[in-house]
């Protein structure tokens, strides 16, 4: 491989020839590299799940059309991740004029300093190389962002040192947008950006000119502008000015995972479950499904604010907390294996309540109370999936006959398993969960507890903090008074 060119003269006689790269924009570069990836069958957005048939094809269309675009979606829908993955469609390195603040293309510089330098030094103008990781600039929009932050401002110190007039272009201190030249500039939560700043953006997008301190400067920036926004802000509150909306080429709506299975795939990828503790660490599939189902139930619950959404971060954080609770129990009870149980899901409530925005009715009940109800609903739905046509009548009868079981938090799995085995008919159904009699106590205990929690969720047995699991004893019907009619009440006396 030939060494990289170090000056403009060497660059002209390298594979980076002027006729190919002089007018190649960043959007054209993204388009060409995207097409090459598609021809090779390479994954376009690795690690992004659930969007293969919806969001990703629309993003591909936007890039192929060389559009600026906006991602509309609720929180926790991988919007920022997608934007950061756009650098994967860029060249590994591109040449720039050494020392330029805005990464000027050596063949078509736009800043005055680079024009002057090439005029003075010619082919000896030094060249440096810009990696793709340095070609992505991201800004979180806040109301206090100024035009100086985004576009730039006059630097009086620079003017004084160089003895220049303040209206001279060389006195400018460039903002974030010019510094993103030849790259991607992402703005998160666009509606929070002040209107006058949005005006500066659409001028750059369309006309390529701005005004700094009252004098116009032509800056034909080569940049792809991408945005994110909450659809409620974008449509209802109307905080994106119309001319800017008109200049955004594509509007793409993101969404939460459509199925529990896809949600579990995302959570498994993002959650930290490969712990560095001692012994085996295991989270059974039914526990993972319960955790994921909590988020799905919350998104459908009328007491939860749907405009705010329920982030995918909820099951991710909850799963991490579930495993931490299981770790804590295993250490205290000296178990050799760490196996998560349903009780650990309740211990993870603190990781859920902060991620659920409640409506008035929910606020009256309280976040923790709502979280407990959502977990119970999630357990019930998951239980029905694994045991759709199983009656568990022997188990229910054992409790109805007066049986009670309170599981001790710090008891070892072996001790808890011995208690659970007293329940008639319970262990006959563990094989449905993939659990065998030869499996260790922690695995069997987790599966048995799931069945009891499922029966409680379906109101087949009862449970309380004081008594644990118990059943309502059957009441023997009292003999009916022969004078009493079949309706169960004596006839009223008639008085004259």
List keywords for this structure.
496 residues; alpha/beta; Rossmann fold; 2 domains; five-stranded parallel β-sheet; 22 helices; 42% helix; elongated; disordered C terminus
Sum up the overall morphology in one term.
elongated
**Unreliable runs:** 475-479, 481-496
Which strands sit side by side, in order, in the main sheet? Answer: 4-7-10-1-11
Largest sheet: 5 strands, parallel
- CATH superfamily caption of the largest domain: P-loop containing nucleotide triphosphate hydrolases
Q: Structural class of the helices, strands and pairings?
A: alpha/beta
Helix content: 40-55%
Description:
The chain has 496 residues and is α/β, with parallel strands linked by helices. The protein has two domains: 246 residues, Rossmann fold; 211 residues. It has a five-stranded parallel sheet with strand order 4-7-10-1-11. A three-stranded antiparallel sheet has the order 14-16-15, covered by helices on one side. Strand 15 and strand 16 form a beta hairpin.
